[in-house]
Amino acid sequence: MRGTMNKQELQKKAAEIRKGILTGVYHAQSGHPGGSLSAADLYTYLYFEEMNINPSKPDDPDRDRFVLSKGHTAPGYYSALALRGFFPVEDLKTLRRLGSYLQGHPDRKHTPGVDMSSGSLGQGFSAAAGMALAAKMQGKEYRTYCLCGDGELQEGQIWEAAMFAAHRKLDNLCLIVDNNRLQIDGPVEEICSPYPIDEKFRAFQFHVMTINGNDFDEIKEAFDEAKRHKGQPSAIIASTVKGKGVSFMEHNVSWHGKAPNEEEYRAAMEELEKEAVGQC
Amino acid sequence: MLENKMAATRDSYGNALAELAEEHEDLVVLDADLAAATKTAVFKKKYPQRHIDCGIAEANMAGIAAGMAACGYVPFMSSFAMFAAGRAFEQVRNSIGYPQMNVKIGATHAGISVGEDGATHQCCEDLALMREIPGMVVINPCDDVEARAAVKAAYEHIGPVYLRFGRLALPIINDKESYRFELGKGILLKEGKDVSIIATGLCVSESLKAAEMLSEDGISAEVINIHTIKPLDEELVAATALKTGKVFTVEEHSVIGGLGSAVAETLSEKCPVKLIRIGMRDCFGESGSAKELIHKYKLDAEGIYKQIIAEI
């Protein structure tokens, strides 16, 4: 599966993942579409190009690991896992429902392909660093990826983990910051600015790359460079658009944690369908 | 009781880890800049590659432990009870407890017997905090023998375990050949018929002494050692309550949320009898020597004896 899709195919797959996000959140009438949509291209690249994973062997000890530190964007995570074959796409409609294995935030005990339970912000990156350290100690080749939010950088634990990862020279660890610029209460730089994000991670001795996180060429280049870089963990600061792919949700903080009504859902799906069949 | 043989359970922790690691390569130890104090330095010296000092960052340490457990290691994360259970509570709950990670939390310097460092470092709330987390096993051993056995049992148990250790040297009371540590099983140390004393940790040996003082007054006290606060040996607790009709719990912990609360919950459901909880009564500790503090807060034999007499 790795290295087999061209840019257009990736864009179509990303549109499918975005449709899965809308489907899940619409049926749940609850959940977080904004940050799921902003990171959809990152999910697409990770699950369809980058990571060494096998849906038929979700517990393979040599698989690459992924931790969704910004766990509230589980709809994007689940959509990618479903489309990659970890569980039926139809099950996305059970998101957040009583009895579903698709909990509001990722649950490693019950969801195939989920490596770490997460959702309480700031915690996932530490677990990812622990996984990367385990690989080093076991002499294994697998890599660990972690996706966190830009607002999440306000959590002190992120920087504890960053200090640890750099100190241990975990070059098998790649942090991706979904820099969509909006958090619940408003723009991140107005609430409590994490900027300059790149310089902060550089000061913490990370190999830092700043990219357009909604552009597959730039995403590919960054992940390739992260793999080549030795002696330091990598941080990809991915500039994205919150709500990306659904015009009325883009750049709009009100879609951080709100479900669309029927009319909005149909409009969004129509827009994404066009993208999926490549009419845009 | 071997009065002349004394050991702090934090030493037992370090020694037991070093021994267990010989046969278990998946055992790793994490610290937050307190290896010298948690006594894991013994392990570190023997297995430097398997000792990970996370620096003064307990929240991150909990996450690192969780991530390593997800990849097959059995991490023992070590710090003072105040920081392991207190500062990192939410990380322990969400990154270790909820995903049922096979992480063991070795919490030393619990209770007021920390001594001179004072209230900021004297954690009397950890049993309450850890007991609340679904699936968390909570162990509070009373001497060197029990503490070593507890570390082994914690390793063998699959799932999160909280182990509570102290700084003060304690007499060894479990030195008989017949001693067996069984997770979730209390130990009847002395039979009696008038009152039951259910104690844990440091207070167990003091309770045995208090029982001797009571017997001089003609009061026959049954003494039970509860090393596993959760799951609690409800059967033994209910049986002793039924037998004596009057129960005292004794712990170096707040009377809110720890052993006293656990026993109260069990008795009110299974065998309601008069229960008096001896422990820290909704207050912080203070600086002083461990012995002075244990005396002031009435957790030594004399204090326990007096509190029991006052209620009979």
Describe the structure.
The complex is a heterodimer of chains A (280) and B (312). In chain A, 41% of the residues lie in helices and 12% in strands. Chain A is an alpha/beta fold and 280 residues long. Chain A has one domain (7-276): Rossmann fold, CATH 3.40.50. In chain A, the strands form two sheets. Chain A has a five-stranded parallel sheet, with helices on both faces. In chain A, strand 2 (144-149), helix 6 and strand 3 (173-179) form a beta-alpha-beta unit. The longest helix of chain A is centred in the N-terminal third of the chain and has 22 residues, at 7-28. Chain A is globular. Chain B is an alpha/beta fold and 312 residues long. Chain B has two domains: 2-172, 3-Layer(aba) Sandwich (Rossmann fold), CATH 3.40.50; 187-311, Rossmann fold (3-Layer(aba) Sandwich). Chain B is 41% helix and 23% strand. Chain B contains 13 helices and 14 strands. Chain B has helices at 9-23, 35-38, 41-46, 58-70, 81-87, 89-97, 126-131, 144-156, 203-216, 234-244, 259-270, 290-296, 301-311, and strands at 2-8, 27-31, 51-53, 74-80, 104-108, 137-139, 161-164, 169-172, 187-190, 195-199, 221-225, 228-230, 246-254, 274-280. In chain B, helix 9 (203-216) links the parallel strand 10 and strand 11. In chain B, helix 4 runs parallel beside helix 6 (89-97). Chain B starts with a strand and ends with a helix. The model of chain B has no long low-confidence stretch (mean pLDDT 97). The chains are: A alpha/beta (280), B alpha/beta (312). The interface between A and B is medium-sized, with 34 and 28 residues.
